[in-house]
Amino acid sequence: MKITVVGTGYVGLVTGIGLATLGHSVTCFDIDEQKIRLLEENELPIYEPGLQKLLEDAVLKQKLSFTSKREEAYEAVEYIFVAVGTPSYSDGSANLTHIVNMCRDIGMYAKQDVIVVTKSTVPVGTNDAMKEWIQAALQTDISVHLVSNPEFLREGCGVHDFFHGDRIVIGAEKTEIAKRVANLYKLLSIEVFTTDVRSAEMIKYASNAFLATKISFINEISSICEKVQADVTEVAAGMGIDKRIGPHFLQAGIGYGGSCFPKDTNALVQIAGNVAHDFRLLKAVIEVNNKQQASLVEKAEKVMNLQGKRVAVLGLSFKPNTDDIREAPSLLIIEQLLARGAHVIAYDPKAILHAKRIFMNRVQYSMDISEAIIKADVAFIVTEWESIRTYPIAKYVQLMNESIVFDGRNCYALEEVEQYAVDYYSIGRRVIRKRDVSHIF
Ligand code: NAD
């Protein structure tokens, strides 16, 4: 099948390279010429584990090409997969500028019947509007079908999720069109759930809102645990055994970030508001998350003055195994620290380039944890990269000026921390202080 994937970001590249790996002829199109130049040199503009090898294989088999030319992207193609960004306006509603521009381009350049498959997360009703926008720009008498096929991949596990995701949701007006899109994925043994277009659009928002709710719920529980001397990791483990609850998304921490949850929860509040529904539950979820992101520095302030302190921030990406820092808790935490007069040195294995564009030389950077914490007065663990989770606690004691650690991701077991002369503050668990273990040394 001849397919064009529009947008070569996290979703577009995983989708395009994944579909090419399944044997389809795929062209990845982007208006960002620099990204296309990189891809033509077999270089990925993003970090996504496992994707580089698949890219090289698909190019070798001549299943994958790249272009920044609209006519090459749209003229002779059976399927167009939409993976352009849908960022937020300041009121939280979805900014559909990229979608609108793309629809105009499709209308201008498409020369044969085409099925447009929307993977971008778009408000309910957008696929219907897209059909009208494309048809209004058509230069040729062709038929255009719109299919909603929301994307559920997790950055950092995108390749796994393309080949082994939990479900493929297809929302179409006609069964025959849904079948044709499902057929593109037939080599995958993933359950296909077929529904109408608007329900498919809503499934994406409802899923993300539900996961965000689980996160904010356990974070609220963690705040209470701190006050009643319970341990949130024990509580979550005990809750998660119940099959009706499940163990996933019950890790207390410093809140969710990334390009999806913050944007999609805000957009769903707006979508509800547009039909006069006050989505109070989701508003509370967002509020709890904002509070949680700010909580680690506030906790630190209660026990020390951060002015003039050398602070190591460990982890910049919004979660491990990605270079994506969009809406990452690290961004707020670093701003809080700088505002309080701290000197920040940030460690991350993949995201430093992106962080430099934001913080420039207001922050020092290191790709080595030991270098970041050496002579530091405090360390903040912000992202649970494997390198951070497995970093020996003894090193904090050896290298830091003052071994004080604020762990926003509960990376270490308390029993282990207790073996070392470290002040350790985590989320929803008891505090460990050096003096408590002084008898050991
Ligand atoms: P991204 O910002 O990484 O990539 C979007 C790309 O689209 C950019 O390279 C941009 O240059 C390109 N683009 C913009 N307008 C274009 C146009 N008119 N023609 C061609 N290319 C154009 O975005 P992303 O993270 O891949 O997300 C894409 C969509 O998928 C969003 O709607 C997002 O909400 C949704 N989504 C993202 C994830 C995720 O984990 N990133 C997961 C599920 C769904």
List keywords for this structure.
single chain; 441 residues; alpha/beta; Rossmann fold; N-(1-d-carboxylethyl)-l-norvaline Dehydrogenase, domain 2; 3 domains; six-stranded parallel sheet; 44% helix; binds nicotinamide-adenine-dinucleotide; NAD; UDP-Glc/GDP-Man_DH_N; NAD(P)-bd_dom_sf; oxidoreductase; UDP-glucose 6-dehydrogenase
Please tell me about this protein's structure.
The chain contains 18 helices and 14 strands. With 441 residues, the protein is of the alpha/beta class. The chain has three domains: 2-195, Rossmann fold (3-Layer(aba) Sandwich), CATH 3.40.50; 204-292, N-(1-d-carboxylethyl)-l-norvaline Dehydrogenase, domain 2 (Orthogonal Bundle); 294-440, Rossmann fold (3-Layer(aba) Sandwich), CATH 3.40.50.720. It has a six-stranded parallel beta sheet with strand order 3-2-1-4-5-6, with helices on both faces. Strands 11-10-9-12-13-14 form a six-stranded parallel beta sheet. The protein has a two-stranded parallel sheet with strand order 7-8. The longest helix is centred in the middle third of the chain and has 32 residues, at 197-228. It is globular and about 80 Å long. Bound molecules: nicotinamide-adenine-dinucleotide. Nicotinamide-adenine-dinucleotide (NAD) is lined by residues 6-12, 29-32, 35, 83-86, 98, 101-102, 119-121, 151, 153, 155, 259-260.
